[in-house]
Amino acid sequence: MSPTPPARRRRLGLPKRVFSQVLLMQVVIAAGVAVLATGLFLAPLSKQLDQEAMRRALAIAETTAADPQIAEGLLTTPPTKTGPVQKEAERIRRATRAEYIVVLDRNWVRWSHPTTSEVGHIVSTDPSDALAGKQVMEIDKGTLGRSARGKVPLRDSDGRIIGVVSVGIKYDSVRAELIGAIPELLAYAGGALAVGALAAWLISRRVQRQTRDLAFSDISALLAEREAMLHGIREGVVALDRSGRIRLLNDEAHRLLSIDDEAVGRSPEEALGEGRTADILGGRVTGTDLLTVRGQRVLIANRMPTDDGGAVATLRDRTELEQLGRELDSTRGLIDALRAQDHEHANRMHTLLGLLELEMYDDAVDFVGEVVGDHRATAEQVTEKIQDPLLAALLVGKATVAAERGVALWVSDRTQLPNRLIDPRGLVTIVGNLVDNALDAVAGTLHARVEIELRAEGRTAVLRVRDTGPGIPAEQRELVFADGWSTKKQPAHRKRGIGLSLVRRLAERQGGTASVGEAHGGGAEFTVVLPEALTEPEPEPALTAPVETSAEEESR
């Protein structure tokens, strides 16, 4: 007989499809549970039947002991086969269908028994506990075989123990009840197994539809591809479940949001703290390409709901693009300032040329001195009050731009800042954003003026920027620090609403505050307080007394 061709051979094992595997496993589990439940039910059922039989025997014994004829007969008559104790005990036994009712005295002598020949003989089991006043329930073996017993003391009218009543229920009847319950129990187990198999089939069909009848290996490959894709892309991905809790973060999201895997299972507020970023992820702020700031990063967020009630949010890092946009704005402002300065310089040169042609040499000298003196005075005024070179250079440049825009930029007389800043670049960012914001606010107004006050109070730096613009309404004074909030027209290359948000975040990062109020005489006044922004001042060197020298030492 030729062997089976390889193409017709079949391997024994689990089926490949998810539907078949799930159905098979659930049917096996349902069958195992049914068998286990049957066994677990039979074990306590046997004990329960034994307990019921012993309690029934004890109840019959208590009823018999309470019969006054039993106690009276035990005290007044001898133990005989036809005595009153035997007759009354047999009557009760037949009425209760007990196997036996034995009445015995304190000498262990039987006064009643189903087998009349046993009357007058000593019992085969020890009744000491019952004679001591205790009630006894047990499964034991006596002259009539194995039985469930109940023993109680027999008392006279004065309450003295004069004997014991022992009642037995045939143990075979207890086992018969247990065996009789097994078919019914197996029927219930079979019904439960059939229901379980039907439920398993329905669940398997649902799983088949949801998995599109894929094999487990296909699902595993898809999950591996998804993990590789999520962690390989350079956009942050945050997945949330229907209750709004984070269930997935890729590597880029960890980096952009500065959180770790402990955030999984928590709400955005718990993981990130309250703020615009958490509101966007939670769906409380809606829209496309939403702008938010996380730490020092500028992010663009989009949120898409999913069919299961959750959502997937994507995050793009626009920090470098935002910096380039700001540099572009600064460059454009500088170009405009240079263009205006070039025009002004041409006018001045024409004036100087005219003075020279008119041979008004003294007036020409005075004119040149006046022009140069104005620039020198501005630079000296700034560097005298602000000793940090970065801040001084920034304000000198801002003063030039403000002058070309027709705005008077004034450094307050109260300004005094030593060169002891811990983070000068952070303060440069704060001052630059506030000054730019003030210049935009007063643009096109009459008598436009921006005043800067920057002073040190111990190790605390206090910054105030006042302008003569329209000011900010009281109900909007907190909104101006929100990410993406702006009243100005959006430029083509970037979004507004970042500068003041960065100011507050930089201040809070150093443990400080940023607020806005109304300036004296109208306009807005921004105040930034940065505690511990300066280092401790260095101690001044101690003055040493001059050393006296002798004439001989001087001659040497």
Automatic annotation (TrEMBL):
Enzyme nomenclature, EC number: 2.7.13.3
Membrane topology annotation: Multi-pass membrane protein
Residue numbers spanned by region Disordered: 534-556
Transmembrane domains' residue ranges: 21-45, 185-203
Pfam assignment, any one: sCache_3_2
Origin: domain of life: Bacteria
Location in or out of the cell: Cell membrane
Class of this enzyme: transferase
Reaction(s) the record says it catalyses: ATP + protein L-histidine = ADP + protein N-phospho-L-histidine
Compositionally biased spans, kind Low complexity: 534-549
Record carries keyword RNA-binding: no
Domain Histidine kinase, first and last residues per copy: 423-534
Record protein name field: histidine kinase
Organism this protein belongs to: Streptomyces spinosisporus
